[in-house]
Amino acid sequence: MAAEASRSLIDGVPGESVPVMDRGFSYGDGVFRTVRVDAGHPWLWSDHMNTLLRDCSRMGIPVDDGLPTTLRAELETLAGAASGVFKVVVTRGSGPRGDRPPTAPSPRRVTLFQPGDPTSSEAFPRSVRLCKVRMPSLPELAGVKHLNRLPQVLARAEWTGPLPHEGLLRDADDALICGTMSNVFIRIDQRLLTPRLDRCGVAGVVRGRLLDASLPTFARMGLEVSEARLGVTDLLAADEAWLTNAVITLWPIASLVDEDGRPLASWADAPGPAARSLFADLQALRETG
């Protein structure tokens, strides 16, 4: 059975193309969000919208505070009661050739809904590799989900096929940053640690939920969470480790190989106790918010 076609709007009008002078197309001058939708219900909607507005501000892209209301209406138009993935792209709009942005930009928004079951969020063990590609340092954009994705694209091109499930990127100083599509967490004793993203990387909304330590697991298990400058040795020393993003939810890491496929570590009991408990917390959030 063929997959159902995606549906898209450009500034609220059905369409599948943007002008060739759009700066998002020409320069990656824009930001985006990817939202999991279950039976018409967008998961962590407020988190996504707050982050979208913050990222637009960081990029100097002027958008109205009413943008989330507009986007919610477009989601309902495109998705109805279906499940799938809703993508929002906001660019600086069209402008003349050259790097200098227009002084009075007219931002463009693109919304896309891909129907179907979102990527599996089952908490079964996943395989992960280290990537050769390094994330470039750019503190001015650290944490922002902008349209410049070439490091992740080149990293994902390092292997073909579905396995391993994800690749981990480091910066030029060998600090662990993120996955090609995910954030990384490790547990050592009662401490949860995630890479500090002050030089590069994308700060996902699920990462944000775990960092605020409000999920029931933190009190139940007596866990503390913080950002830290982490390296591969910290990952190898972890009692358990996992990946997060707003579509997959949480993936426990069961095995790690190096850039050439040589085994580095395995976690035979994955998912560990913290991953199992946090996964349950996040699943509950999918039903309520």
Walkthrough of the structure:
- The chain is an alpha+beta fold and 289 residues long.
- It folds into two domains: 7-115, 2-Layer Sandwich (D-amino Acid Aminotransferase, Chain A, domain 1); 126-288, D-amino Acid Aminotransferase, Chain A, domain 2 (Alpha-Beta Barrel), CATH 3.20.10.10.
- Helix content is 26%, strand content 30%.
- It contains eight helices and 15 strands.
- The chain has helices spanning 23-27, 45-59, 67-79, 150-156, 205-211, 216-221, 232-236, 273-288, and strands at residues 7-10, 13-14, 30-38, 41-42, 84-91, 108-115, 126-135, 166-171, 176-179, 183-188, 191-195, 224-228, 240-245, 249-257, 263-266.
- The strands form two sheets. Strands 7, 8, 9, 10, 11, 12, 13, 14 and 15 form a nine-stranded mixed sheet that branches. Strands 2-1-6-5-3-4 form a six-stranded antiparallel sheet.
- The model has no long low-confidence stretch (mean pLDDT 95).
